[in-house]
Specification:
With about 130 residues, this protein is an all-alpha fold. Helices cover about 45% and strands about 0% of the residues. The longest helix is centred in the middle third of the chain and has 26 residues.
Length: about 130
Amino acid sequence: MATLILIIHLIVSLFLIVIVLIQGGKGAEMGAAFGGSSQTLFGARGAATFFSKLTTVAAVVFMISSFLLAIVTTRETSVLSKVPAATQQKSPVPEGTTGPIQGAQPIQPAQSGQPAQQTAPATPAK
């Protein structure tokens, strides 16, 4: 349903853009460009021209489709609620290593009163 309304909305919006761009300003009708009277190319200017009526209809359809899109999309569930909860992942750091330094050796536990010794991490040669 939302896809159909969205397609109609896009077509009407493009049509509305074209219709507005086709219309000339108040004194610069297309008939004036061809050397004739500016009122005679698309007929005499009455209360509302054909293009102004067409623009009004397109604008009303655009507003209705915008309103319907807002209603339809808010009734759907959120995308975030459709995503399953993330499972707990294993840590890429092996057990017994200390800190984020790569290549660090694990700390050896102290035995028989001797202080614990830690091996310095390997440093790359420069």
